[in-house]
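Quick one: co-fold with XIL.
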Amino acid sequence: PKGLADAMKERGREFIGTALTLRGNATEEAIARNPADFNSFTPENSMKWESIEPGRNNFTFDDADRYRDWAKKNKKEIHCHTLVWHSQLPTWVSQGGFDNATLISIMKNHIFKVAGRYKDVCTRWDVVNEALNEDGTYRSSVFYNTIGEAFIPIAFRFAKQASPKSELFYNDYNLEYNGNKTLGAQRIVKLVQSYGVEINGVGLQAHLAQETTPTAGPLPDQKTLETVLRGYTQLDVDVVYTEIDIRMNTPATPEKLRAQAKAYETVAKSCLAVKRCIGMTVWGISDAFSWIPGVFPGEGAALLWDENLKKKPAYDGFLKGI
Ligand code: XIL
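Sure, here it is.
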């Protein structure tokens, strides 16, 4: 039977991906490897600043290299993640105390070394991740507090120089509700463009919930999702759902799993309704390993395969939407 990536390519789009952690689970890895379902992945943690430059100019590429090798061996695109982010940032950076010029040179070295090393394998890069508060203003971070909003176009300029063939994305969560944060990311696209710097896409993480949970939901309707996507494509950039998971209050019940399948279908349909929605990535394979229960206690069951690595109704819903 036809898989997710097969269906997506049939519809003239580029990719379906998953977040990937190589943890030695053969069943999970075989699902991620299956080219019918996935032709792309995002390294879940291995390219983050704390993993790859834990000390100043001390680069530890071994782990990220494993993902590059896995991609080559299994013929996958890599959605590389992420160059400039306030989180999973080593203390030597986050504690600050740098002047403007010094922090820019630190960013430059990081981006040139990391994006430069993987320039032939990163189809896309999340250059800047999560720079916005919920109200659309800039989040307080060492980058914003030291450099100001210019840290964003500066990061994109370095990334383009270091890896000219990669598509460069601004990536954030809660952009799906057509609120102030949605507008904030439009402002960021225009800001980068106003510097004469290339930005190729907006990544909507899509950490969503079907029902209302203590931390999210309910799901935006299809029309809202399409409006949000078009708000970005009108600025001449592509859009991608970069980290889809649709959580629920656990335990799962058959009804909730059916509603979740509908929710996955809605998200997929919204992408397919917008020509420049080039792909979608789900944030992992199995509920057994998802980040959700660890961060949102009492919530979970957010992915397409259950804790026993069996396909859920959500898989069929997602496929139906493509
Ligand atoms: C999460 C990973 O899934 C976890 O393994 C890690 O402990 C924390 O980060 N937004 C992002 C992702 O951009 O990098 C985050 O991934 C989830 C939220």
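If it helps, The first strand starts at residue 15 and ends at 20.
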